[in-house]
Specification:
The complex is a heterodimer of chains A (about 260) and B (about 260).
Chain A: E1 14-23, E2 32-40, E3 44-48, H1 55-61, E4 70-75, E5 78-79, H2 83-89, E6 93-96, H3 108-113, H4 122-126, H5 132-144, H6 160-173, E7 178-182, H7 190-207, E8 210-215, H8 218-224, E9 227-232, E10 235-240, H9 247-255
Parallel strand pairs in A: 3-8, 3-9, 6-7, 7-8
Antiparallel strand pairs in A: 1-2, 1-4, 4-5, 9-10
Helix pairs in contact in A: 5-6, 6-7
Chain B: H1 3-23, H2 27-33, H3 35-44, H4 52-84, H5 91-106, H6 109-120, H7 124-148, H8 152-161, H9 165-199, H10 208-216, H11 220-254
Classes of the chains: A alpha/beta (about 260), B mainly alpha (about 260).
Amino acid sequence: MLQEVTPKEIFSYDIINMDNVWASYDGKGYVLKDVSLSIKGGINYIIIGPSGSGKTTLLKMMNGLVKPNKGRVRVFSVDVGSNGHFKALMPKIGYIPQNLGLVKNMSVMDNVLMGALHRVSNLRALMKKFPDEEMKSAEEAIKLVGLDDKPDRKVYMLSGGEKRRVAIARAFVQKPSLLLADEIVSELDFVKSREIMDMIHSVKQRMGITMVMVHHDIEIALEYADMIAIMKDGVKVAEFRPSELDKASVTKLFNGHEA
Amino acid sequence: MKPKENLLISLIIAAVIVTSINTGFDPVKFVQGAPNIAVLISEMVQLDSRLLSVAFWSMLETLQMAFLGTVIGAAISIPLSLLAARNLNSKFVYAPVRAMLAGIRTFPSILWALFFIIVVGLGPFAGILAIIMYTIGFMSKLQYESIEAIDPDPVEVVGAIGASKTQLVRYVVLPESAPHLLSQLLYMFEYNVRQTSILGIVGAGGIGFYIIEYIKFFQYGKAMVFMLVVLATVLIIDWISMKIRDRYIVQRQSGK
């Protein structure tokens, strides 16, 4: 199902700009080396690469969880270094980390409602009394991901695929303009991972969200991306549209040598 | 063996000898006194069953003291441990709170009891206050350590959504650490029952008062009745809390 359509450049402006970004966790070795990229609004941008190539760090740059040592990251034209301004933006950025970040001892419903916390007062949150419209949107999101038969089930009792659905529903309830997802379908089989990807994709289209995803599966990237970046050892080695390269040449780039 | 290890072992042996001499640790004396154990046991087994009802009621008082002390102490230690957790606060908040808690922990409950006897007089109330202080010092430490050990991912994600710190505590921190808190609460109660049993020694109420009085007057058989009641109670509490743990905690922690 290779996409032949060009990226739906609904918005002509860039949502994310990275200029010559360097990142290091210990101040010695660099995890990202001089990475520059820009991501247009409304597209699905997929970052692929072998493990340890800096994909996750790159993603965490986009919501300020990791700050650049050198270079500049701007999201919605706001510098992630400018603390106050960027904090106000964070509710607009959804984030699904690789191990999902769900609260295991709470129910599906509670976890999904957490996506709405930034719109709810402290008092209401403490008493777990969300406004009716928030309850309704959480119920809708749970239905959308197909978990409407178990909203009260505790998350630790769910399967791996179901947990992913909870994390996706939470991200939808947040109503973000930009959604970052890290290896959302890793460890799922062919059919299940397509189910999840189709679900995210249809919601992305409906809500007009910009998506940035990290995957290690080349086929998934070619199927769903509007733009693909390949990372290797902290360097962005390629950036292309899925229609521009076939699987064989992408695999070659991915592995970094002639196959 | 390397010369370094030889030196270390000789140093430890020398230290054991020196400290034994300094503190009067004398195995020979123990062997000489050993027959006294037989005398003691023979007197201890002459149980005075008429004292059982007194023992039962004083044990009940001890249990109530331990219960109050644990519940109130835990209620105070939850907010304190939230302030002492390094993953939730800046250094300027957690450092002074931790220092205060360490200060509270310095004193064993019996010293707290002596302090509160001066303040509120002899009796169970002083004992309860002592248990509260000990519980705060000890349980806050257990709690902030388990709060610091929670999965950082939900904290990161829910924080990134724009939730406030209060919301983060309500939806992520407390639910994630709840099984640990429950298990610590049970442990603390068991521990406090044992502690409260001896607080009577300084006059702070509970079953310890009878134990120390009978021992003072060499009535070991009578003291033994009270000690057996303590033993039985502690065993029963151990068993009950094991059941609660199996039912509510183990299952949750195994589910990832």
